[in-house]
Amino acid sequence: MLVGTADVDTLARSQATATITHFRRDAVTLTGVTCLQLTAEMRNSAREAVLPPSLHPTIPPALSIQVWSVAESPWGPFRWAHARITCRSGVRARGYTSAAYASTNDACEGLRTAFGFPARVAQVDLRHSYDGADANVTVAGQAVLSIAAIDPEPLDRNDVQYTGTLNLATTPNGLRLVQVEADHEASRVERLAARLLAFEPVAWGNALLVPAFVVSASLAQETVVFPPLRFVCRPGELAFTGTESID
Questions:
Q1: Which one of 35, 175, 177, 222 has the minimum C-beta count within 10 Å?
Q2: In a domain, 3, yes or no
Q3: 1 found inside a domain
Q4: What is the pTM assigned to this prediction?
């Protein structure tokens, strides 16, 4: 059985680990959301080496990149981007967040303290129109992500599925993988042909994160609701025995 081999303490030091001082008991709703998602296969060298021992890698290893533009939220309008390594926690498909960037301080703080995203402030841009979409993330003047997507084709609103997210964060239970679910209610979904023009692996959490082949890309117009957190997991222990209810 394949499991992650990354050292948990090293991951915590390298990924701007967030701190959750108390578990939020209410849902967070984001409206007017545009979500661009790109999935790319990676080299086998990144399979086990980029995940903590509690998670199972996928074959082939893959990276999911999402860039959001949010019109309304508890933290005001903002844009953000995060990269997730596809994996499984027990039998459930998940994405382990390796890095995240948000366009405002308020959004960055909210994402960190409410859900444990390792968010940092950066310039995040997402443009979309009838002919496609472009996304860019710039950190300290350096382009760390650039996506160009064209030729949108309409899909059914239920044709795109989003897996749950796991964030390594310090919590009232200790250093844990925080399980973040999101309910996506889309009004419009499109498939696009995308190219990854720039991606800096170290800026996204690990030098081994090298996308080798773009598999798919989609754009959704939607409302997203994050329900209250329910579970966390010990990062060095398999989910079957290491999962804890926050109650």
A1: 175
A2: no
A3: no
A4: 0.96
Burial label, 247 (beta-carbon count in 10 A; 0-12, 13-18, 19+): exposed
Residues 6+ apart with CB under 8 A from 202: none
What amino acid is encoded at 118 in this protein? Answer: P
- 180 neighbors 166 (Cβ within 8 angstroms): yes
Domain hosting 214: range is 8-245
Residues 89 and 141 sit within 8 Å (Cβ to Cβ): no
Name the domain count of the chain. 1
Q: What is the CATH number of the domain that holds 164?
A: 2.40.400.10
DSSP secondary structure of 20-51: -SS---S-EEEEEEEEEEEEEEE-GGGTTTTS
